[in-house]
Amino acid sequence: MKIVVAYKWAFNPQDATVDSGGTVTWGRAKAGVSEYDPVAVELGRRLADATGAELIGVSVGGADTASPMATKSALSRGFDRVVVVADDALAGASTTQTALVLAQVIAHIGDVDLVLTGDSSVDVGAQMVPAVLAGALGWPSVMNVTTVSVGAGDLRVERAHEGGSQVLAVTGPVVLAAASDAVVPRVPGMKDILAAGKRPVEKVDLAALATGPSASSVAGVSTSRPELKSRGGRVLAGADVDAVVAELVAALRATNVI
């Protein structure tokens, strides 16, 4: 059994700064495994340990996706190996482009039984990659997954939804998107970090895949702050306190505050 977890190497927007003109600066931002992906890795690791499956990390993105720091950081989370497509043509790729390339990598690996993803990526947060990826693979997809276990010839998947939860029996390959609070991911220790350096990393050439980035692109042109609405102000003064209070109450009623 092969379990794949799709993860993203991305900058955290919380580390970005915005100047007075509204320009976003990423100079102080540090890249890392996207915030919610460790939850999917933990779900995958637990299932792999229970079934003896291989846990494979897959990532596509810019050239830095294949840097030693990026691959070692991912491997320290619990992967047996990682497969990456790192090409600057994929830097800032759209949700659809990312999902299509991921589908090609999964086909390249072959005989994959399950794909897990995080709830969303920390930088885009569109929550669309799992569904688009499943569509490209021709597999079903399930969102908001909280637990995954092996049933009698199938996978038992529990997902959260409004008003409660639902348990599904899944046969055949499937794409599962983990809920952000499904599990508490383990924090890599020194032993995990040292072991990560000895695990295999496969780099797949983007040109070798059937699907690459399309000619379409979306790029930011400018950013600006919202215009601040001026607040009306009125000062009430007078020696007669009761009269001032009455005037204040009348003013609040006139503006439907009370």
UniProtKB/TrEMBL annotation:
Organism lineage: Bacteria, Bacillati, Actinomycetota, Actinomycetes, Micrococcales
Signal peptide region: none
Molecular-function GO terms, alphabetical: electron transfer activity
UniProt-listed InterPro entries: ET-Flavoprotein_bsu_CS (IPR000049), ETF_a/b_N (IPR014730), ETF_b (IPR012255), Rossmann-like_a/b/a_fold (IPR014729)
The protein's assembly and partners: Heterodimer of an alpha and a beta subunit.
PROSITE patterns (UniProt xref): ETF_BETA
Family the entry assigns: Belongs to the ETF beta-subunit/FixA family.
Transmembrane segments: none
The protein, known as: Electron transfer flavoprotein small subunit
Swiss-Prot/TrEMBL cofactor(s): AMP; FAD
Reported function: The electron transfer flavoprotein serves as a specific electron acceptor for other dehydrogenases. It transfers the electrons to the main respiratory chain via ETF-ubiquinone oxidoreductase (ETF dehydrogenase).
Pfam families: ETF
Domain of life: Bacteria
Domain (Electron transfer flavoprotein alpha/beta-subunit N-terminal) ranges: 21-213
